[in-house]
Write a structure and sequence with these properties.
The chain has six helices and ten strands. It is of the alpha/beta class and about 210 residues long. It has one domain. The strands form three sheets. A six-stranded mixed beta sheet has the order 2-3-1-9-10-7, sandwiched between helices. Strands 4-8 form a two-stranded antiparallel ribbon. Helix 4 runs antiparallel to helix 6.
Length: about 210
């Protein structure tokens, strides 16, 4: 009788473990998986892809699903294996060490906008701290706003509410840089990767959504 109870108890424990593992596997933490791999390799980068959205605003980028690494190699090779279900995404490593994860045919027009001047400091508030505020500053550049207005392109509305812990300041000013180069500059202070999501809606409108991880 004791043996039967022991076996039954073990079976219940194993069932609980299996259920817990199933729940864990059902949680898509692709953004963090990519972040962890880049962090362990001491490199930064970017991810660009297209998506279909229900609306043209109010959306944060939804990271494409990645799996666990299926091979060893350079950061670019390992990441490529993780994007197994996204055959159109190509992962490369540039001479400067940045890893680019880019879906084929994703529009890069907005990334190529040339910005005359960006200052990561406010005359009244002082230096800008943290990637979210830096992103707001970059997207508020006159050249970017003009491009988006002309093309009727929307973007996620950025709102920082409540308590926001102060992060390290982003130093310096930028002159004559593309939007992607401006985003890259933030990675020097905050290693990780930035995301560019190009969205189309049922109404055939376009939105561009950015985020730092």
């Amino acid at each position: 009788m004791f043996a039967c109870r022991a076996i039954l108890g073990t079976a219940l424990i194993l069932a609980g473990v299996c259920n817990a593992q199933q729940v864990a596997l059902n949680v898509d933490d692709s953004a963090q998986l990519i972040r962890n791999l880049l962090k362990d390799a001491h490199v930064s980068g970017s991810l660009g892809y297209s998506a279909f959205c229900k609306s043209a605003s109010g959306r944060s980028p939804v990271i494409p699903h990645v799996g666990i690494p299926r091979r060893e190699g350079s950061p670019a090779e390992v990441l490529q294996s993780m994007f197994g279900n996204w055959a159109t995404i190509r992962v490369t490593e540039e001479p400067n060490g940045l890893v680019r994860m880019v879906e084929a045919d994703v529009p890069t027009d907005i990334l190529e906008i040339r910005i005359h001047h960006i200052s990561f400091a406010d005359a009244e508030a002082g230096p800008i701290s943290g990637p979210p505020l830096a992103l707001m500053k970059i997207l508020a550049a006159p050249e970017v706003e003009a491009f988006m207005k002309e093309g009727d392109i929307r973007t996620t509305a950025f709102r920082i509410e409540g308590f926001y812990p102060r992060l390290p300041d982003i130093p310096g000013e930028l002159y004559d840089v593309t939007l992607s180069e401006a985003l890259d500059s933030v990675l020097r202070t905050f290693p990780g990767y930035w995301v560019y999501e190009n969205c189309t809606t049922p109404e055939d409108t376009r939105s561009v959504n950015f985020r730092f991880y």
